[in-house]
Amino acid sequence: MRASETLCLNGIVQSIGQPWRDERAWRAALTPPPCDSLRSVFYALLSHRPAHQVTHSAPASSTWAAASPDEQVVSGKARGSHALESAPTQMQSPLVYLKYALGGAVGTGLTHSSVVPVDVVKTRLQVSNRYHGMLDATRTIVKEEGLHMLLQGLGPTAVGYFMQGFFKFGGYEFFKAFYSSTVAQRYGLDEALKWRFGIWMVGGASAEVIADVFLAPMEAVRIRLISHPSYAKGLADGFVKLAREEGAYGLWRGLPPLMFRQVPYTVAKFAVYEITTEAIYHALERRDITKDDLSGAQRNGLSLLGGLCAGAAAAVSSQPADTVLSALNKEADGSVPRILRELGVRGLFRGMGARAIMVMTLTAAQFGIFDFINRQLGLKK
Asked: Dihedral sign, CA of 213, 214, 215, 220?
């Protein structure tokens, strides 16, 4: 091997193994002048294109190495660090995504469990027209069935949303990085940043589809317990009874409408959260205040604010599907077309007030807990 090719390979190895602080240094290591042909082959492997189609200009980003957000320059303009974090061009190790998943699981499981009383009232409003608003439903349930009925369905809620949060948050961070790095490798960092809104949406949808497979059985048991309190004694009894009576179909019968509810919910949730927090941090950066300058409490406050905005958007976008899902799981022989005919447009938004309060509260808390756990686990998020 010629000395020039050895120099080129050394530059490649160094670029993979070191977290470069400057994009120009990264490019220089990958693009020493004497090895054009070898460099073209390397870029072809990264971009999955034939070597003869690859130009001699280095890609804007690599799966293994990326420029520092603080020093990155795109199209002659310095980009804010948070904007680059929202369209990451660097895939992390599996352990990193496992940490994200753990934070999402804890945040989602805790928050959904904490609002079970609100969810019970919301579900009753959706499946019955005997109540006249949230307060009337709460008073009636406590008077006729006891205070403990407001905690009905706590078991399946905690277990189901712990699993859902694990795959949703962990999956979102993985898919966001995967799609961003793919676009950056093929089309450049400019395009990855330009299309980051679409990347957030597709990443959220991809993660939610996987998460819903694990949530659907727990959601079916939860709604059955709330709608018919005498159906079973708890999560285990309800799960076994539903599986025995209706089989896998009964457990996953609500999966299509669940996805119909959760995918728009999650897409709006993550996209609006990213937009809100990016706008906030961008405004701070114009005043020479970076994320590192903020205290943990201040960052949590911004996460809560972004979560409130995200929750409002998520609640509105998924309300019709949530109503259909509640009605569908109430009856073993329910069908979506019949439910839509019976409810009408107005009926689809029954219980909107209670659900909006619940969704905004839990979404803000989820992102606050998620951000806090990220910092405790050493993740810069």
From this structure: positive
pTM: 0.70
**C-alpha distances in Å from residue 171, one per residue of 113, 135, 166, 190, 305:** 22, 37, 8, 24, 23
What is the mean pLDDT of the segment spanning 216-226?
A: 89
Pick from 304, 301, 315: which is nearest to 269 by CA? Answer: 315
Cβ atoms 161, 108 nearer than 8 A: yes
Helix (H), strand (E) at residue 319: helix 296-330
Q: Give yes or no for a contact between 183 and 191, defined as CB atoms under 8 angstroms apart.
A: yes
Euclidean distance between the first and the last CA atom of the chain, given in angstroms as a whole number: 43
Ordered by start, the domain boundaries in the chain are 3-59, 94-376
User: In CATH, what class is 94-376?
Assistant: mainly alpha
**Positive or negative, the Cα torsion across 131, 137, 139, 143?**
positive
Question: Does residue 175 have a pLDDT over 90?
Answer: yes
Cα→Cα distances 242→37, 84, 160, 168, 343, Å: 63, 47, 16, 25, 26
Measured CA to CA, the distance from residue 154 to residue 238 in angstroms comes to: 12
Residues ≥6 apart with Cβ < 8 Å to 350: 125, 126, 129, 323, 343
Q: Which pair of structure tokens corresponds to residue 37? A: 């042909």
DSSP 223-235: HHHHH-TTS-SSH
The residue type found at 306 is G
pLDDT digits 0-9 by tens, 295-308: 888 988 999 999 99
Specify the pLDDT at position 76.
35
Helix 196-227 × helix 116-127 angle, to 10°: 80
Amino acid making up residue 372: F
CA distances from 163 to 83, 158, 241 (A): 29, 9, 21
